[in-house]
Prior knowledge:
15 strands; alpha/beta; five-stranded parallel β-sheet
Amino acid sequence: MVALVIAEHDNASLKAVTLNTVTAAAQCGGDVHILVAGSNCGAVAEAAAKVAGVTKVLVADAPQFADGLAENVAEQVLAVAGNYSHILAPASAHGKNVLPRVAAKLDVAQISEITKVDAPDTFERPIYAGNAIATVQSTDSVKVITVRGTGFDAAASEGGSAAVETVAAVADSGKSSFVGREVAKSDRPELTGAKVVVSGGRGMGSGDNFKILEPLADKLGAAMGASRAAVDAGYVPNDWQVGQTGKIVAPQLYIAVGISGAIQHLAGMKDSKTIVAINKDPEAPIFSVADYALVGDLFEVVPQLVEALG
Length: 310
């Protein structure tokens, strides 16, 4: 058996979630190869070749892959798919865009957002907002899988010495074209990769009140997040949303401030290593998953916490 991981990258660097996907691929048994489809992506291929556990890197370098259009990347995956028993990608927006196309063309059932590999043909994935875990067994000849990065440790980014092989790039499908991209810029860590996350909820009361959380995030070097209620209320941007319909995070420390703990929010953060919840309602559902509970007015507790951190 040989597994193929679809690298997620920006043509300059390999995205961290690819390393988690490599770990999942290795647990499927056999060798692990990485496909890098991009434009002027030599640096990405070099980084992929250094990933521990990877035995080969396939590189398709052509202008039609510059913007990661799903139609083109999927065709490139299909061009090499015949050599693989497993095809995996991160369960990110990109992976969710590419792999369903691959699965459909291969006429197999995609296995989505796995969090554990029980056997080469058997996987676990959360359902019902993470309240149940489904064990799924596939009899398809090729397993097409998206991987929830928070379910697997990242493979070491150094230590590997995989062979790099150039493969023929497929032609531009002509089915779509890149129009533009709006990128949110921040000096803080990226939310899904941060070791510490400070999130606010509806209890913050307004967007201006989120500034109360900034000194705490600064002290901890944390990313800023929010519940869907806070996002829907217009307090903060959409890309801050943590939860079932937002971003899935599993940092070393998650601090939930003024978040009641709706099931959809818990689905996005309950795998965090340590959870601290601050809420004035002692019956708030967030306390059911919290390791440390602070019952009190967040407008008093948060400044005191910042002061205590020095």
